[in-house]
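Our platform keeps sequence and structure together, in a single record for each protein. Such a record has a labelled line for the sequence and another for the backbone structure tokens. This encoding replaces a full spatial description with a residue-level series of whole-number codes. Below, we set out a record of this kind in full and without editing:
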Amino acid sequence: MAADARAGEQAVEKQLKICGIKRTIDVSILYLAGQGLRSIPSLSQFHRLRCLWINNNKIQDLTFLIKNHCLTELYLNHNELTDISGALKHLCALQIVFLHNNQLQKLVETVKELKGKISLHTLNLFHNPLAQDADYRLYVIHALPSVQLLDRKGWKSGNHTKKVPFENPEDAVLVRAMTRSVMEFSCVDWNKVATCQERRLENKVEEPLKKMTIQFK
């Protein structure tokens, strides 16, 4: 158990080093996928953590998420979870939750854990024993009316389809950077714009204005 705990701590430390992050307050995205982890240390120090990838590991419990109230995206697929009771109820900001390819068996308890999350729009629960229930889809849709996409591997944004989770952390960072909203600022040198009086007095063709535009992502 000590070895498992240390492996989890090292994975977190490695990821922070890769991203060049020195202050825990600056951590909003954490990628710990595909490292064979059985245990993850408490992430309570990351108060602003929004997106967490821990897919493709061997995680069996989620006690490390006690204080991560800002989480909006949580990728838990391809692990060894059998029960999530008491683990996600306090995460009210969740929008995307991937839990497919685990061993979740209790449909009612699992859905109850996700109730009340009015921002939750994407949920994957397929390839779990609970998904074999005959009324599975109807029950989930009725109990979680905010969910727009259930058990889909990708969802459309414009003319593109995004697929998650990402196999490479650099891909995740790039996609998120490219999909951020754009801020645009434009400026013109108004000293070169003729006034109404100047236009009447001077009979010459005005030069087209030069506009400088700067975009921020």
